Amino acid sequence: MEQMASPAQAKDAEVLRFIEEMTSDVDSVQERVVAEILAQNAGTEYLSKPVAHAVDGPRHRLGVADESVREAVAGILRPDPELARSVREECGKAEWAGILGRVWPNTRYLDVVITGTMAQYVPTLRHYSGGLPMVSLSYASSECYFGVNLRPLCDPSEVSYTIMPNLAYFEFLPVDDDQEEGDEPMLVDLARVEAGREYEIVITTFAGLNRYRVGDVLRVSGFHNSAPQFQFVRRAGVVLSVDVDKTDEVELQRAVERASALLRPHGASVAEYTSRTCTYRIPGHYVVYWELLLLAGAVEVDKEVLDGCCLEMEEALNTVYRQSRVVDGSIGPLEIRVVRPGTFEGLMDYTISRGASINQYKTPRCVTFPPAIRLLDSCVVSNHFSAALPRWTSYH
């Protein structure tokens, strides 16, 4: 006798059937979606104009001032002194390895974003969670949801998202290194992207956003039925440049990872980082701000080790950068500025105070806003420079 499926199993089966239906003919689903969007937003002013006026300044946030609401919430959320004591006791211990499982013993997995430069947090998450599975379930932004990860238990380095064509109308700008500046790239439909190529995603949503550039660069990693699967690569436009060099977010992340490996024998790691170019001196140079995390019992990292990290970062950067350092002398030695603990939390607080959403905040990998730079510089505890030139070989 065939066993009856549980309600949860039946719901899962229904979701999987829906995914198969939506991804079997992406082109026709997208045609229907764009028709619905245009019909739904036919009277929307900024769909009929090329540019929408931006609203300047921070938005006002209204707190809950209604006393009846406060009283209703107070009746549900009661204090638990015993729980507070146990949390305080755990957090007061010197060893925080596996603390998530001790504070929340029923935790089975972490729902996290670990793609692109967010991959830097994987070792830290493993340390604090005691090795709990890390799951990246979906790909979304403030504007809309884009897709789902059909292999949620895969390794963080293998995460890819299947774009669901019913969620919005998706178009893509090809990202080509050899594209001439000023050239207008042609938009590519969702059904016509090519495996292995990189694109910047552009969306038209049911809420009325028209060809909005999200700013994410994605790489086509494969297909599920006719629906493309993408890996997040980087944010568009995050580039360090002093001369003819161009260092993007991915290169910077790789360089930080390579250099931070020198810290591990000393019980330290890079908790957060950002960067900028310093051009008020000639030659200009890269400045990278590091906030360090010391494991229990670790002492301060020696100056020589951090100086070596500067050179290790330069060794990991592209050949144009290294040629500019070695041959042309048009770029000065890379500088690491170590900031005191809590600096990046202060940067987040400052950004949110100017109107950013705390739910959408991500540490910027390149800073150009003068007040943000001043905040970082006010927290510097030590400066370090490359003591030697990186390796570079001419192949001509």
Automatic annotation (TrEMBL):
Coiled coil region boundaries: none
UniProt entry tagged with the keyword Ribosomal protein: no
Assigned keywords, A-Z: Ligase
Residue intervals of the GH3 middle domain: 161-235
Keyword Ligase in record: yes
GO cellular component: cytoplasm
One Pfam family of this chain: GH3_M
GO molecular function: acid-amino acid ligase activity
Membrane-traversing stretches: none
Top-rank taxon: Eukaryota
InterPro entries linked: GH3, GH3_C, GH3_M
All residue ranges annotated as the GH3 C-terminal domain in the record: 251-369
UniProt record similarity statement: Belongs to the IAA-amido conjugating enzyme family.
Protein known as: Uncharacterized protein
Native source organism of the sequence: Lolium multiflorum (Italian ryegrass)
